[in-house]
Amino acid sequence: MSPVPAAALLAALASVALIADRGWVVAAIAVGLFAVCLKAPHDRRWIYLTGTLVSALSVFVLSPFVSHVGTHVIWAGPKIPVVGYLDVTSEELAAAGIQALRLAAVGLAFAAYALLLDLDRLLQAAGFARRSVLAVGLATRLVPTLERDATGFVEALRGRGVHVDGIRGHARLLSPVLSGSLERALSLAESMEARGFGRAGRTRAPGPPWTRLDRLALAAAVLLVVGALWL
Amino acid sequence: MALAHVEQLTFSYPGAERPALADVSLEVEPGEVVALLGPSGSGKSTLLRALAGLVPHFHGGRFEGRVEVAGRDTRRFSPADLADEVASLFQDPEDQVVFGRVENEVAFGLENLGTPPADIWPRVHAALADAGIARLAERRTETLSAGELQRVCLAAVLAVGPSLLLLDEPTSQLDPEGAEAILDLACELGSAVVVAEQRPTLPLERCDRVVFVEEGRVTLDASREEALTRLDPAYLPRPARLPSESGGEGEPLVRAEDVTYSYGSAPALEAASLELRRGEVVALTGRNGIGKTTLAKLVAGLLEPDAGEIERHGSVCYLSQDPGRYLVTESAEREASLAVGGDLARARAALARVGLAGLERRHPRDLSSGERERLALASVLVADPDVLVLDEPTRGIDPPRKHELARILRRESANRATLIVTHDLVFAGDAADRLVHLEARERARA
């Protein structure tokens, strides 16, 4: 499938997950997207899947304690200043489940976009806002680059007999990894300028023609969003 | 008429205490190949950036004098406006790649220059064929080796067909054959070429003229023949004195027997054997992608083999080939002290050993690339390990500094085993007692 209809389909699924009220619809979207993400190579997909699932789980665990909805108390906790009572109700759990599934679905749609779509072809197909699409493409590639840099720092420290353990150990790598990514971004910007980026009169290499499947996917994306809004 | 004309150029980076270039005048004729030599931090890269218009447009700073390329004044024309006449190839290909697919990367420059759409793919495929990498057209750029990626960057340049090609240490990560191929391709293009290199043998064999830069000033601008009689001997081509292939006599500290390693499903090293003894310096050579770094990491204990056995005795330190990995703390002395539990006195002594005395409190990111290389070296030397593994320690280091590094390694070799992974055979000859050449699917000849 071409990247434009594939991206439209993913965006539509993420939108439906945000709009839909029924938990089973959101859950079905999340499970479907998870299955799609499993097609990506293991060494690339784990960071996206772990990040998404941990975030969703955090929302599910924490939000019942900070929201105050419902009357069917499952667990009555102490009163905390500012936050109030730490009671957990069945209504809060249900709402937390839906929010967690929504976050998981949106995260997994992004993971599928980053892992499986040919971002180059998506950029090629962009007839307008090419700079914005290029910026999004480069930002998407930032995640694996940061991961590779962090691994390199840990390895260089291990090579000096320094072991990086725990959250605190990894946290001290945050600053060098981010500084390194800024340096890399500057080098890339310099290289792009030297190669004529930003010059007037830019043209576009012709992309492959759309297939029937591409047209069907785009129609499905539109129908999904319209259907979710209507229902 | 000269293609590029530099007239009394003086340039300082923003906030710099002294100019990076001082009163530089230079001309480059069409089709001429110029070797740009000089110590690390002497201003070679800045001069190349001035010819591309990146100085001052991209970097800012104080710019006096005039630079013209193909009749265009670089103060009035931006680097993007000069891109149809000037192309640059930088040291690290990873920092230049914009796209995820090879053919799109090569097409990027053509699209920027407004090439008619119907001409783009034929020119991309012709450039890939000229660079000898037509088979890589559909590959993802992140799956390529450094050598392959540098060829992709060169293909992107070939596709555009510039009048002036600027090469800033383009072969520093390549094996001798790969480096030769890249320079041959660049020099056969028919464009004027200015090539800055820290392994001067190859450019000196191919150039028409030599420009030597020192502390921002041009101290020599002469024909190749004349330059060969006037250059500092450290920069002159000389044959590598290859060390012997027989082992040392000291106590064995590392013994790897038939070790095999794969990254996921991709095999990186197959049935390699190596022994390191106390008191010897061993150079590990072999072409790009053959598994030298993997073997070095196995020796250092950073990886464990999938098959085969490896024994290690004593402490081991490993120097990564990327000096950017030694920028974790806020000062050079703290960085160097990490391996010795924060002992600043030992860290300062190690910094002094590599010529960084006086820069102890400097933030590692404020050091020049050559100084970063030396900080990385100090960060492993400080621990005085029994086994020292250095992965490409001469990348970006000028010939006199390489000579100094070889001297340091030899001076301190008695109490340890040292393994140096290198493409620089001249350096290997200067520093090592023994040469191990790694070949595909075969045992390392140890």
Mean pLDDT of chain A: 86
Backbone structural class of chain B: alpha/beta
Query: Helix tally of chain B?
Result: 15
Global outline of chain A:
flat
**According to CATH, what is the topology of the largest domain in chain B?**
Rossmann fold
Q: What proportion strand of chain A?
A: under 5%
- Overall geometry of chain B: globular
Total count of strands of chain B: 18
What do the pLDDT scores of chain B average to? 90
* Whole-number total of structural domains of chain B: 2
H/E series of chain A: HHHEEEEHHHHHH
Strand order of the largest sheet of chain B: 6-7-8-3-9-10
Short note summarizing the structure:
Chain A is mainly α and 231 residues long.
List the helices and strands and how they pair.
The complex is a heterodimer of chains A (231) and B (446).
Chain A: H1 3-19, H2 23-37, H3 42-66, E1 73-75, E2 79-80, E3 84-85, E4 88-89, H4 90-116, H5 119-125, H6 130-158, H7 166-171, H8 174-194, H9 212-230
Antiparallel strand pairs in A: 1-4, 2-3
Helix pairs in contact in A: 1-2, 1-4, 1-9, 2-4, 3-4, 5-6, 6-8
Chain B: E1 4-12, E2 21-28, E3 33-37, H1 44-51, H2 54-57, E4 62-69, E5 72-73, H3 79-82, E6 86-89, H4 102-112, H5 117-130, H6 146-160, E7 164-168, H7 176-188, E8 192-196, H8 201-206, E9 209-214, E10 217-223, H9 224-230, E11 252-263, E12 266-277, E13 281-285, H10 292-300, E14 307-312, E15 316-319, H11 332-337, H12 344-353, H13 369-381, E16 387-391, H14 399-411, E17 417-421, H15 425-431, E18 434-437
Parallel strand pairs in B: 3-8, 3-9, 6-7, 7-8, 13-17, 13-18, 15-16, 16-17
Antiparallel strand pairs in B: 1-2, 1-4, 4-5, 9-10, 11-12, 11-14
Helix pairs in contact in B: 4-5, 4-6, 5-6, 6-7, 12-13, 14-15
